From TrEMBL, chain A:
It is a multi-pass membrane protein. Keywords: Cell membrane, Membrane, Transmembrane, Transmembrane helix, Transport. InterPro entries: BP-dependent_transpt_permease, MetI-like, MetI-like_sf, OppC_N. This is Peptide ABC transporter permease. Residues 364-386 are annotated as: Disordered. The chain crosses the membrane at residues 48-70, 117-142, 149-173, 179-200, 242-267, 290-312.
TrEMBL record, chain B:
One of its GO terms (cellular component) is plasma membrane. It comes from Bifidobacterium moraviense. This is Peptide ABC transporter permease. The chain crosses the membrane at residues 43-69, 142-162, 174-200, 247-266, 301-322, 345-373. Belongs to the binding-protein-dependent transport system permease family. Keywords: Cell membrane, Membrane, Transmembrane, Transmembrane helix, Transport. InterPro entries: BPD_transp_1_N, MetI-like, MetI-like_sf. Residues 1-34 are annotated as: Disordered. Residues 136-370 form the ABC transmembrane type-1 domain. The keyword GTP-binding does not apply. SUPFAM superfamilies: MetI-like. It is found in: Cell membrane. It is a multi-pass membrane protein. Residues 8-20 have a biased composition (Low complexity).
Amino acid sequence: MSHSNASAVGVPGDSRLDALNVRKPPSFWAKMPIVKDLRIAVGWQKGMLITGLTLTALFLLVAIFAPVIAPYGYAQMKDDAGVSFTPQQAPSAAHIWGTTVGGYDVFSRTVWGARTAVIAIIIAVVLSIFAGVLLGLVSGYFGGWVDRVLVVVADAIYSFPSLLLAILMAIMISGGQSGLWSGILASGISITVVYIPQYFRTIRAEVVRIKSSAYVESAKVVGASTWRILTKHLLKNSTRTLPVILTLNSSEAILTLAGLGFLGFGIEPTAAAEWGYDLNRSVTDVTAGIWWTAVFPGLAIVLIVLGITLVGESLNDLADPRLRARKSAGEVIGSIEDTSVDPSEQPSAANEVVAELKFAGKPQANVSLERPQDAQSTQGKEADHE
Amino acid sequence: MSNSTAVTSAGPSAGTPASARNAKGDGAASAAKPRRNRLSGGFFRFILTRFLLIIPTVFILVTIVFFVMRATGDPISAAMGGRLTPDELQRRIHAAGYDRPLIVQYLDYLGGLLRGDLGTTLTDNQPVISILVRYGAATFELAFLALIVALVIGIGLGRIAARHRDRAADAGIRVFAILCYATPVFFLGLMLKLIFAVWINVLPPSGRSDLASEMQFNRLVSPTGFYIIDALQLGNMTVLADVLRHAVLPALALGLLTAGVFIRLVRTNVISTYNSGYVEAARSRGVSEKRLLDKHAWRPALIPIITVMGMQIALMLAGAVLTETTFEWKGLGFMLSTYLKARDFVAVQGIVILIAIIVAVVNFIVDVVAALIDPRVRY
């Protein structure tokens, strides 16, 4: 912007304005939900997000490479020589996390369990987003009695304990017991039904809010088809809160899957490894002081849920300006010196706001930014909410 | 003091879905009218409307539960399909009326429900409603104790976190809250059992009381089923201590599950009232930070908590199913999982519907309490 053009005023010979991060559309990559959040997060909020992402990535890797990592199969009860594993064996070199009462290797089953959990989440989340978003869009846009009925039903389901609903669905879909794919599918669908109302409510609320806005009205006036309005105008603008709900729901999905397994409504041990089932079998072990059959699958659940929840919580905080830790005054304001009328003033790390705060004797929290053009130290989050 | 003027415009938050749902038409009506007597006619009309809303909710849930349970076939073949000859099976299906059209059975079931008849269990042949009478008290006792644990921990820690926002204490408490939420209640239960009942061996691992105490309860003329109350009735301190010792671990497991939610809720709400205009105004008048928290920011922050508490009861009842199974605590949840294992779907259906009704009634009570405290909620 060193030269003026039709849309902007510039100062010839001064290239500083070009370095400013204004009026440049962010790249597609920078707009991706998690990438965008990583860029705006600071301090411990960034720490939470990164911890969560690391844990989630770790479990994804374990799920993908389960056959490589696990020394035995999830239903393997004999070693290569054909000798059966001793049941309830304490951790040793051959079985680093011991064996279960059924004679399975705990480490292998915990590793394979990651795969079951990840597949179940993916099925549950994909299906419930698809159904929930579609219903929310249609219900919110068209209104009428369909809308009213759907809202009442969604509210009723929403207030119902989700685990009980999942049990009912598991009974309906699989009659209670099942193999690998039918079991995972049944669990996935059971969880789906529980979470559809949440997506439905969120999307519907957004659609009802957006549909009376001027740009939707004008789209109607210029003759856009209903389908185009639904997909181009409403869908794209109502998915703002989806990443947050999505992550929080996937962690709930794991808990529901484990709960189903714990009550004996999960997947048969010969069909797939499932942490909830393993915990169910370890209830009697614990009373006898056998800790390894419960601790490892349980910790696996805690860590994966912790990871996903940390991501979801951080996204939630970052989406809400009231909860977000402030990054910097500098980036929001741009470079203050550029607006100054004092010709002797040079752009420097500290702008006037910072100088003023320094004067007030406030402690400085200096946050350095990733992008070099913005590399100015700024008064950080501390002053924002004390 | 603070340069947080940017956030003051946010005002008291209606951030949680529950409060948003109840805050329809907030302010609009109440601001215009002059202040009326707290328990005016409008309030009773609100109670009546809210009470009548229970009916469609329960009706929808009963309908869903009924048709979902029947989608796989009749309960008799599910429970004893393998054990009976086909002829015998047919005869019993016919006798129980499961060969009639589904809609007739449904209307029949609804009719029974109105009379308080939820069917008879297949495995041990007792009316489902008697399960509520016999085991309901145990579940309520557990839920009540867990709620106390959750409130004490949740409100205490949530306040501290809000007070020290973005410092180490806040971060630590938030991680603790997420851990509470991330730990499945049965895993937490197993770990508590392992540590306190097996390794340290100071608390009993399972059950509601020792055999000796059970014998004492048999002497009671009118047992309530609430063991703590029964022990007080007996006036026997050994029994009371025994009952309380048995309750510690289950109540802690179930309470911590809910405490995580309360911590987050209290923290968010106190922070948002803390940032609101009237607190800022009080601060500029020189009110101390402690007094700001205790007198100004605290009370309004509690209203959404009461509403969400109602939603937590639903979560707690689901958690009770898992907690009771872990600790062999003989309540509704324990019976539900027992009947699930026996594939007695009449009993399962009955207990699930009972829980649905309990949840609906509890939500009603919570809404009324919320309306009593905050006149803006009424609509």
